[in-house]
Design brief:
It is built from 16 helices and twelve strands. The protein has 357 residues and is of the alpha/beta class. Strands 4-5-6-7-8-9-10-11 form an eight-stranded parallel β-barrel, surrounded by five helices. Bound molecules: flavin mononucleotide.
């Protein structure tokens, strides 16, 4: 199998496994965040304004459909559903890693389909491991990222950090030296954000990222889809004992998403922060914004609906918006700026994480 075919198959396996298997983290860290109820909200639900501006674009709600797919023929319909729904609901959309289409232009359509529907904000996607030399493969350059950006009409390109997944795979890209320098150099050439994929960004890494010219961060914290878990199921199918063992051992590895948001916000008051990882309803979106996130990202819960079609995605997004509106009402928050000042109580493991040195 060629390197291109390996990438394509892996992408398809990720989608099948995330739809069919139990790949969630064992802990739901967003439940550690209790918003304080206001018995006298002093506003009408009809007046609640969910809108916000992010990366210069106007969204109808502080929600991003987080990066999932592209790069194999079946992904085209998934991205079409997601893009159509994102446009209709006025939320942002991230595409999955565009590496496959950069290697094989025949796959571009599985990503570029999102341009047909014009979501208000589109986020491209490449992997940090591909920015440096891996096993003799040429690292991606600024021109490649520009191609990725144009392919989907992206407003920003996300560089994803997924070293948990890479080290749990038997064939992963495990060279990480030089990624930060590559991100730093590329961030001066085009609009980049950095995005984890389920293991979170802690304050030590956040400090280093804030010295680059990136435009924002998606903390991609623990508590939702676990890519170590995904690798367990891939390894079982391939009968690869070591990968299955590694994935199982690191199933719950990572910094809780709420903790990542708080730490990021403590370092910078206004830097755009997207909270992804275990956001499962509109109350979780409200919790994320109260902790300081600019917007919340949702991936796996939208995958099944996307495979049904755009209508199912719209229905789910509308329910999430209704829950968010309810949480804003019950905290007396008229808009997202007010929600960011809502009072909360942090408990459980997330609270203990913040006691660390
Ligand atoms: C099927 C699937 C494929 C994914 N592929 C990518 C990817 O290519 N690039 C990326 O940055 N994140 C990818 N992710 C990670 C998500 O963007 C997100 O960070 C993670 O799933 C946590 O969010 P969730 O708990 O809402 O699923 C993928 C997630 C899923 C479920």
């Amino acid at each position: 199998m060629s390197a291109e075919e390996v990438t394509r198959n892996r992408k398809e396996e990720h989608v099948d496994i995330c739809r069919d298997e139990a790949v969630q983290a064992r802990r739901r860290y967003w439940d550690d965040v209790a918003l304080v109820h206001s018995a006298l909200p002093e506003l009408d639900v009809a007046d609640i304004d969910l809108r916000l501006a992010l990366f210069g674009k106007k969204l109808e709600a502080p929600i991003i459909i987080a990066a999932m797919t592209g790069g194999y023929p079946g992904a085209r319909e998934i991205n079409r559903s997601l893009a159509k729904a994102a446009a209709e609901c006025g939320v942002g959309l991230g595409v999955g890693s565009q590496r496959a289409a950069l290697e094989d232009p025949a796959l571009e359509g599985t990503f570029s389909v999102v341009r047909e529907h014009r979501p208000p904000l589109v986020i491209g996607n490449v992997g940090a491991p591909q920015l440096i030399r891996q096993r003799g493969r040429r690292p991606l350059q600024a021109a490649d990222l520009e191609r990725a950006r144009k392919m989907v009409g992206a407003d920003v390109v996300a560089v994803h950090l997924n070293f948990l997944q890479e080290v749990a795979e038997w064939d992963g890209d495990t060279q990480a030296r030089g990624c930060l320098a590559a991100i730093d150099a590329l961030s001066r050439r085009l609009p980049l954000i950095v995005k984890e994929t389920g293991a979170g960004i802690g304050r030590e890494v956040a400090r280093r990222l804030l010295r680059t010219s990136i435009k924002g961060v998606d903390v991609g914290g623990a508590g939702g889809t676990s890519f170590a878990a995904v690798e367990v199921f891939r390894a079982r199918r391939k009968r690869h004992a070591l990968a299955e063992r590694l994935g199982g051992t690191f199933w719950d590895w990572g910094i809780p998403a709420p903790v990542s948001v708080i730490e990021m916000r403590q370092l910078h008051r206004t830097f755009p922060v997207i909270a992804t990882g275990g956001i499962r309803n509109g109350l979780d979106v409200a919790r994320a914004l109260a902790l300081g996130a600019t917007a919340a990202g949702i991936a796996q819960p939208l995958l099944g609906p996307a495979m049904e079609g755009p209508k199912a995605v719209v229905e789910e997004l509308e329910m999430i918006k209704a829950e968010l509106r309810a949480a804003m009402f019950l905290t007396g928050s008229e808009d997202v700026a007010a929600l960011s000042r809502a009072k909360y109580v942090l408990s459980g493991e997330s609270a203990r994480w913040l006691e660390r040195a």
